[in-house]
Every structure is written in structure tokens, then in C-alpha cells.
Amino acid sequence: MGFLQDDRDFVEAIKEAHHWGSGPFLRKLFVTMLLSSSMDRPDHVWRKTWRYLSDGILYDQRVFTGNQALTMSDAELKERTLMAIETLLQNNNRSLEDFKTMPYPKDYVESFTGNRLLYDERQYDVVAQQQLFESLYASLTEKQQGGVFFLYGYGGTCKTFMWNTLSASLRSKKKIVLPVASSGIASLLLPGGRTAHSRFKIPVPTLETSICNIEKQDDLAELLKMTDLIIWDEAPTANKFCFESLDKSLKDIMSGTTHASKRIFGGKVVVFGGDFRQILPVIPRGTRSDIIHATINASYIWDHCRVLRLTKNMRLQTGQPTSTNDEIRNFSEWILKIGDGTMCEPNDGYADIPIPDEFLITNFTYPIKAIVEDTYPDLMHNYLDSNYLQSRAILASTIEVVDDINQYITNLLPGEEKEYFSSDSIDRSDANSFDAFEHVTPEFLNALKTSGLPNHSIRLKVGATIMLMRNLDQFEGLCNGTRLTVTRLAPHVIEAKIISGKNIGNLFYIPRISLSPSQSPWPFKLVRRQFPIIVSFAMTINKSQGQSLDNVGLYLPKEVFSHGQLFVAISRVKSKKGLRILIHDKEKQPMLSTTNVVFKEVFHNI
After folding, report:
1. Less Cβ around it within 10 Å: N or C end of the chain?
2. How many Å separate Cα 469 from the centre of its chain?
3. Higher pLDDT residue, 312 or 191?
């Protein structure tokens, strides 16, 4: 059952997936296992499963050579399979050489010479990029032209359109652009995007003294030296120490250039983007002051930023083809008043605000049933329809409420339910005094919950919508926040189809991996081996940041508790008619207002 935390779990996952899928899918599954760093002995898993992983290799070689009578020895099959695995790893800027016990294909010849990272960033079609730039540039609004260092605009003002335009412009001239975002789901919207932490090797957690884990002589350092532009989206959601660690690293990397070591970011052009109305950096057990002082505009870097604002909501215009300009403007202004905290003044950052009747659900007996039926109408006829599922979600402020909704919807789905349990332990190497925790019971560890960690028990059915909680394969679009629908369930592996981001419709196999919270809320580090997923018919408001949906059901039995949460929830929707809100008190009586939280001091120096 996977409770022993040994590599048999991974061997069984590959064997089970072999009954469903072909060799390419199995090799991707093995690469996911490698990238998760969960296997104790990857070479042992390789030896036990290489025949499954080599499925299709002989056929491909017969097609390639035009020789249907071609045969291959075991050694040749292993070599070709390792070459295919190495190619998949290279797509994620990794190599079999990074896993010391794994064999490396002796005959692997790269299709380029020199720095793989530089090669990837220079392989864009110059003519196609020039045509794309000319097309995008012709569509720019007046507000979107000009040189900027911080592009300030709320969701829907087409910051992504600007990133595409800037990237195409420079890439059409064979220049290097590195687009990154603070979250995985936002990085999928960028052309060639990655998360900032993975691209720049920013440590987690990031502290005031942190620097990026980049050696001056490695390929990434060479890439950064040659980079012409860095685009960083969703900057306000990241801790200021992330930006400062990159600044220190770039100054060090560029120190050989005249005066570069004294210039911000080593003299590189860096364009930030985002919205301070959205959720700010999450500081565990942090006060209001701690959160404000962790934002980018509380950093010395902000003194070097020039701000340009985007103010036209293009998302609402495209989402409401039948709406009048007045309706769009009024809805947009209502959203902005909530984001700015000016709906009911004066206030100290916390204000009780009325919700317009047109958005409210007030006629209900069972509130969860009501919000589900409103957000997912005719669910039983559509639960296998990816288009139906990807366009809607229920949002709530706490994980406990989200779990209740997800379990309610899962119970509605037809078919057999399968329950997956985690294997939990304490990281002995990280515990200050492990003797103090020797008698901690498995039941106690199983009961622990925290943000960013899957629950001990996950209950699934085929057709359930799930969300990844870790970046598994950014090249394939499998990031923290990617939504999928479950298509098959086995004891050690889950098959699911991507329904958000890029590569929509692609199938993917998900194994159990070992996970730990980046910042433990306990006096020890919990290691949980579990599928890195959460059921996501409903999701927390924080988790929805970066999503764009046709239908949003906002369920508030518990009010929001931090800056920007209400604004983020109502601004996920593409149209006014797609927003529905249900609020009730402890007695489950409908309410017509709710709390809005805005730390206005974060806007003071923008």
C-alpha cells in the first residue's frame, strides 16, 4: 500500500501504468519520479522496470531505419531508453548525470554544442517572432506603450499581452528574454515561462541573507550574462527577499563587467508586473506589519522601479459580448473599490460591505447544496466534460470549507470511490532533537494539515477534478495549480487529463511523492508520501490566484481574513453574470454583507 516508504511503491506504479499506457507515458512517469527526488535508489527502480520503460523503443527504431526486421539486444534497448529519458530530463534542465546512481547513455549525443540553456532560449523562429510582434504591437492600447520597470495592473488588464509583445520583439532580434512568475499557474501564461524559484534557483524559504544557488561558472550563470530582459509576473505576491537574492546574484555574476557590480540587478533590464490589490506574500503567523514589510515595494529595489499603470479591463470586455459599456464599467469599478478598500469608508483595513442582490444566493436550506447546484448546474450530465469543468469553480476562504464542498461533490459522482492514504514520518536529519519526537504516533502525524500539503486521506472517483500541489513537469505544463480530471485509478498511480493551462487534453500519470511544507508550522519537519493533489471542484481563494473562469461561486460561511482575498475571488470571473455569492452565519441564515480586508498602507508608495 506504499506505507513502508521504500521504492517498491514506484516500481508498482510503473507496473500498474503499463496496463494503460505506452512507453512514452511510462518514461514521463519515471522522469516525474526522478524530478520529485522521492526515490531512495532510482537505479534500483530502473533495473526493476526498464523493460516496461523501453516499450515502443524497438518499434520507433524500425520506423526510423525503415527495417521492420530490426532486432535489438537488451543492452541496446536500455541504451535507447536511457537516451529517451535523458531527452525528457533535458526539457526540464536536468540530466541523468544529476542522479549519481543512474546509468548514463554512452551514445547520447546532444543536438547542439555548448550551453543547453542558451540553445533553448535562441531556438525561436525569428521570422515568426517578428510577425507575432508586429501583430501584437498593432493591437496595443495607448496605456501599453512605453518603457517600464513595473507594470501595475489588476487581473484582466492584459499584462500577459504585454509580456508576449515584449518577448516577441526581442526574440525576433535573436535576443534572450527570461519570463518568470511567482507561481506555477501564472508561469504557464508566459511565452517560455518558468517559475522564478526554478529559473533562478532561489532557495526556499528565502531569507534576508539568501542568494540564488548559482555558481559563477555554470550554464545558468552564462545564460544570465547573455540575457537582455527578465520579465517577472505576479511580483507583489512574492517575498521581497526573492528579488533581493536575485539582485545580489546578478551583481556577483556580472562583477567582471564595468560598474555592473554596483548597478541594480547587475545592469540587467528587469520588468516586474502585478497588482498590489491581490494577495500579498504569505508570512506564516505573520502580523499585518510583517506582510506589508515583505512586499517588493518595501525593498530597496523599489527605489529603482518606474511604474506604468494598465487600467482597462480587457477580460471583462471579452467575457461579456452582449453587455453594454456602462455595465462593464460599473462592474469593473465595483471590483476596484473592493480591491482599493474604498467601498465603505472610513475603515482601518477591515470593513463590512454590502453585496449587490444580483450576485447573492439567499434562498437555500442546505448552503453547500445550493452553491454546488448554482456553480455546477446539471453536473451529472457534464462531469466528464473538460470544457464544462475547466470554466468553473467554487471558492472559499479556508481549506476546511473547501474539503467539505469537494467531498460533497465527490459523493454525488457515480462510480466506485477509492481512498488513498499517506505514509507520514518525521525528517530525522532536520529535527533539532529527534529523541523528543520518538513517541509521536502515526495517527498524530496523519491528522496534521497545513497549506501546500495534501491531506492524509484523499478520496477520489473517476471524473473528479483535481489540482496539482507541486511543480511536476513545467515543460509539460504540470505546475502547482494545474487542474486535471481523473480518468483512471490504481493503487500506486493515477491517470488524469489536463484541463487548464497549456497542453489541455494531454494525459499524465501521477505517482506518490515525498512532500514537506516549505516552512513547517511544527517544531519538526513532516515528510508525507502522498499523491501531490487536492480535489478542486472547490479551491481556496489563495489557490485561485492566477486562474480565469467563466463561472465563480463564492461561498463564505467564514469571512476572508487577509488582504486582497475578496478582490481576488470576485476578479477571477470573466463576466458579471458568471459571479454568484452565498454568505451565511453560524446558524446558516443568509447574509447580505461580508468583511473585506485591505491593508491600504501597501499602496502608499506606488
Report:
1. N
2. 8
3. 191
**Nearest to residue 582, comparing CAs of 354, 356, 360?**
360
474-525, pLDDT tens digit by residue?
Answer: 888 888 889 999 999 999 999 999 998 778 899 999 999 999 988 788 888 8
Q: Please say whether the dihedral angle defined by the alpha carbons of residues 221, 223, 229 and 231, taken in this order, is positive or negative.
A: negative
Show the cell assigned to 133.
510582434
Residue 145 pLDDT more than 60? no
551-556 β-sheet, strand order: 538-540, 392-396, 551-556, 579-583
> What is residue 429's predicted lDDT score, i.e. its pLDDT?
73
Question: What pLDDT is attached to residue 159?
Answer: 76
Nearest residue to 360 (alpha-carbon basis) of 574, 598, 570: 570
Return all residues near 293 (Cβ < 8 A) that are at least 6 apart: none
Q: How far is it, in rounded angstroms, from Cα 541 to Cα 399?
A: 9
Query: For residue 551, is it left (φ>0), alpha (ψ between -120 and 50) or beta?
Result: beta
Amino acid at 398: T
Residue of 463, 455, 382 whose CA lies nearest to 419: 455
Are residues 452 and 540 in contact, defined by beta-carbon separation less than 8 angstroms? Answer: no
Q: Tell me if 594 sits within 8 A of 338, measured CB to CB.
A: no
Place of cell 520503460: 53
| pLDDT at residue 162 greater than cutoff 90 | no
Q: What is the pTM of this model?
A: 0.85
- For residue 335, give the 3-state DSSP assignment: helix
Side-chain-side CA neighbours of 450 within 13 Å: the count stands at 17
CB atoms within 10 A of CB 435: 7
* Cα 585 to Cα 587: distance, rounded to the nearest angstrom: 5
Could you tell me the CA-to-CA distances from 439 to 3, 5, 423, 424, 514 in Å, in that order? 18, 19, 16, 14, 22
Q: Please tell me the predicted confidence (pLDDT) of residue 475.
A: 82
* pLDDT-above-90 percentage for the chain: 54
DSSP 7: T
DSSP H or E stretch at residue 111: none
Cell matching residue 328: 462593464
